[in-house]
Amino acid sequence: MNHDCLKLTTYFGERHRTATQFVADALLDLYGRKELEVSIMMRGAEGFGRGHRLRTDRILTLSEDLPMVTVAVDTRTRIENLLDEVMSIKRHGLVTLERARMLTGEVGAVALPEELHEATKLTIYVGRQEQISGTPAFVAVCELLHRRGIAGATALLGVDGTAHGVREWARFFGRNAEVPMMIIAVGAGEQIARVLPELGVLLGRPLLTLERVRVCKRDGELLSPPTSLPATDERGLAIWQKLMVYASEQARHGRSPLHVALVRRLRQTGAGGATCLRGVWGFHGDHAPHGDRLLQLRRHVPLVTIIVDTPERIADSFEIVDELTDEAGLVTSEMVPAMASLAEGRRQRGGLRLARHRF
Amino acid sequence: MSLPVWIAIGLLGGIGALGRFFVDGVVAARTALDFPLGTLVVNLSGAMLLGLLVGLGLKGTALVLAGTATLGSYTTFSTWMLETQRLVEDGEATLAAANVVISLVVGVSAAALGRLIGAHV
């Protein structure tokens, strides 16, 4: 299967509740009921959003309502049929829709469409305890991507989700073997295309998506600023933009960890919001894939910081990102064709009709 | 100890915990620094209050209720330790050391100051 799909992402707080349950559970119950091809729920490490309240797992009192992110991918029709129900779950937060190409089953040689040639974001979904000849699948995948010279990859742990249409969630006791993880990799289009058949062989039952991105910075070097996008498309639909900053927990700006400094600066300068996700394994640049070890003082895991806003405000945020990633980090930008923000369960701004813009 | 005292310890412990949750929450939300200031404020104010109560001459059951039950659950050793460990993990060695040293030095001083005030009231 090689489908044009939609990726539905939601951002909200861990403690948000509907009348009967947590928003996170309500969303994942819905994704499970609809047997979505793949969905995953992740708990953020730090972030802020509407109201500018900072949440972080670094301070106990500020960690009781951490940011949550859910990602769901399926065919356009199936995702669009879901939107009314997703939006009817009352909460504060953001919802975005992005175009993605999904590959499942046999992955042969893939001719990437021209638009994916600049740079491609490859997302690979694997089970949390899936093994490939005795090695955890996420380690084996990162190893392969690193060997093939891909710019970077980050493995993020899910706590709930669906894979191949089946609900899998993490229980306190139990092996949680199939709870999905996502590995986000960024590389040149051709490099990604070459590695796809190998991933197909490695994984047996691969579940992959491909998206178009621009690599803005790598290890302190400015490659190209985010694409300059208009505020709306020809039909007047708002266009949004996303920045993602990938860095190790060890990366610093001044004396603070890079992601901490970044979130702090963005919050001070009035950015709309930012969410950090902490990975369990990954690499960027020439460093070998790394994660936490059993005995260590400091953490060695990768972090991803996500910022979604209007193109104009993303240009402002990029100035901060650029300044803070003067030594380390991989920065990418993407167009987001639809975004809606919710407050008190009502749509505040934006909408979920997909904007169209060629660049 | 009588049954009413046991019950009072439980109730006052609950009130102390709520007090901590409130104070820590307010401080942390307003400052949102990299430093766990909320926990520090709670521990320092708790140390000073306990010093004050001892200075005022509280003894026996009253001290158990106010000190062990209320202030005991108001202040927190475990959060102090955990947040210090998180700072070390983030590579913030200076902040981690400051969190330990300030808590100890200012904490002991706050308890002493509380006693002094209590004794002179």
Task: Lay out the secondary structure.
The complex is a heterodimer of chains A (359) and B (121).
Chain A: E1 2-13, H1 23-33, E2 38-43, E3 46-48, E4 55-56, E5 67-75, H2 76-80, H3 83-88, E6 93-104, E7 120-127, E8 131-132, E9 135-136, H4 137-147, E10 152-157, E11 160-163, E12 166-169, E13 180-187, H5 189-203, E14 207-212, E15 214-218, E16 221-222, E17 240-248, E18 252-253, E19 256-257, H6 258-268, E20 274-278, E21 281-284, E22 290-291, E23 302-309, H7 311-324, E24 330-336, E25 338-343, E26 346-351
Antiparallel strand pairs in A: 1-5, 1-6, 2-5, 2-11, 3-4, 3-20, 6-14, 6-25, 7-13, 7-14, 8-9, 10-13, 10-21, 11-12, 15-16, 15-24, 17-23, 17-24, 18-19, 20-23, 21-22, 25-26
Chain B: H1 3-31, H2 37-55, H3 60-74, H4 77-89, H5 93-120
Helix pairs in contact in B: 1-2, 1-3, 2-3, 2-5, 4-5
Q: Summary?
A:
Chain A has 359 residues and is α+β, with helices and mostly antiparallel strands.
Task: Describe what this molecule looks like in 3D.
The complex is a heterodimer of chains A (359) and B (121). Chain A has seven helices and 26 strands. Chain A is of the alpha+beta class. In chain A, helix 4 packs antiparallel against helix 5 and helix 6 packs across helix 7. The radius of gyration of chain A is 19 Å and the shape is globular. In chain A, strands 1, 2, 5, 6, 7, 10, 11, 12, 13, 14, 21, 22, 25 and 26 form a 14-stranded antiparallel β-sheet that branches. Helices cover 20% and strands 40% of the residues of chain A. The mean pLDDT of chain A is 88. Chain B has 121 residues and is mostly helical. Chain B contains five helices and no strands. Chain B is globular and about 50 Å long. The two termini of chain B are 30 Å apart. Chains A and B meet through strand 19 and helix 6 of A and helix 1 and helix 4 of B.
